[in-house]
Amino acid sequence: MRVTVERAALLRSLGHVHRVVERRNTIPILSNVLLRSEGSSLQLRATDLDIEVTESVPADVADPGATTVPAHVIYDIVRKLPDGAQVSLETGGESGQMTIRSGRSRFALGALPEGDFPDLAAGEMPHGFEVAAADLKRLIDKTQFAISTEETRYYLNGIYLHTLETESGPVMRAVATDGHRLARVEIPAPQGSVGMPGVIVPRKAVAEIQKLLDDGGETVAVDLSPAKIRLRFAGGLTLISKLIDGTFPDYQRVIPANNDKRLTVERDAFAKAVDRVSTISSERGRAVKLGLTEGRLALSVNNPDSGSATEELDVDYEAAGLDIGFNARYLLDITAQLEGDTALFKLADPGSPTLIQDREGAPALYVLMPMRV
C-alpha cells in the first residue's frame, strides 16, 4: 500500500474513528484502525465489537492495499505533525510494518494483517429514514444525562427510541431513566420512521453519535433492525452499533398525571439558588428542601457536619403549603435542559414524583423522585 493524504483530512477522520477504540484491549487487533486505500480514497475503520465507525477521506493512491496499525498511536502522530503537511503511508515487504512520512519526519509502526480485523456486518436493516441532525441532537442532548450507569439494570443503560401516535400526530420519542429521574423528549416523527421497532441505543454509542453530530451535516440517514442501528452522516461517515437486547420498562406508568400543585419559578434564579444552598450539602445526600407557601419558595440545606443554608425566592404558587426534598444535582441537571425563562413544577405530595417542564405541553418532560429531608 502506498498512499498520500492531507494531514487535516486524515486527522479529522482519525479523530472520528479512534474514539471507539478502548485504551486497554485483550485482543490486540481491537487496538488497531483498519486503513484501506483504493480508487482515490483512504478508508478508515475502528471497532470495539459493539460499535464500528467507518469514514473515507480523499487520497492520492499510488498502490492500493490494506493494513491495520495502533489507532491511538497513529492519531497522536498525525495530531503532532505541522498544519498543511502531506502524510505518506506505505507498507511493503515482509517487515509487517507501516511507514509514515511527512516532511523530515518518519515513523515505523507495527502492523497486523487486515484479514484479522473483525467486521461488524450490519446484516438486513428493514427500517430506514432520514432525520434532521438538529432534531436527533436535541433528542440525545436532552435525555442522555438521565441514562443509568447501573450495570445490573442493563436495559436502562441507553436511550429508548421509538415512535407512537399522539393527539397531535405521530412523534418520535427518546426516553432515558435511572430510576431516580426520567427524561422524555419528542419531535415530529421523521418520514418513514413510523412503525420502526422500539430500540435501546447504548450509552457509549449515544456519546459517539453526540460527538459526530457536533461535526455538522444537515441530515442523518438512520437504518434499523431489532439488533443494530446504522447512522450515515454527511461526508461518508458511518456508525454501526449493536442495540441493548432488553425490554425498556413502561415509562408511562411513572409519569404522574394528577399532580395538582403548580409552581412556576424563574429558571435561572432557581438554578443559581439551588447551586448556592447546595454548597454545604453532604456529598452522599445532596438533599435540598423546597418549602412552598403562597407566592414564596424557601430553599434550605441542613448538614450536621458543615452547617445550614437558606434562600428565598418569589414564585407563582397558590396551592396548599408543601415541604419536599430533592437531590440538588438532579435538580440542576434538569433545569439545565429547560429552554424557557421559567420552569413549571407539578407537585403532589412529599413522597410522590414531580413533573418538570418549560411550560404546559412542552415537547420535553422530566420526572424527578423526591428525597426524604
Overview of the structural elements:
With 373 residues, the protein is an alpha+beta fold. 17% of the residues lie in helices and 43% in strands. It is built from 6 helices and 26 strands. It has helices spanning 7-17, 71-80, 133-141, 203-214, 267-277, 328-337; strands at residues 2-6, 32-38, 41-47, 51-58, 60-63, 65-70, 86-91, 97-102, 105-110, 127-132, 158-166, 169-177, 181-188, 199-202, 219-224, 228-233, 237-242, 261-266, 287-293, 296-303, 307-314, 316-317, 322-327, 342-347, 354-357, 364-368. The strands form 4 sheets. The chain has a 9-stranded antiparallel sheet with strand order 14-11-12-13-26-25-24-18-22. An 8-stranded antiparallel sheet has the order 6-2-3-4-17-16-15-10. Strand 8 and strand 9 form a beta hairpin. The radius of gyration is 25 Å and the shape is elongated. It starts with a strand and ends in a 5-residue tail after the last strand.
Q: Sketch the major β-sheet.
A: 9 strands, antiparallel
C-alpha-based Rg, rounded: 25 Å
Strand content: 35-45%
How many distinct helices? Answer: 6
Helix/strand-derived class? alpha+beta
The overall strand count is 26
Range of helix content: 10-25%
- Give the distance, in angstroms, between the N- and C-terminal Cα atoms: 67 Å
Biggest sheet: strands side by side, in what order? Answer: 14-11-12-13-26-25-24-18-22
Notable features of this structure?
373 residues; alpha+beta; eight-stranded antiparallel sheet; elongated
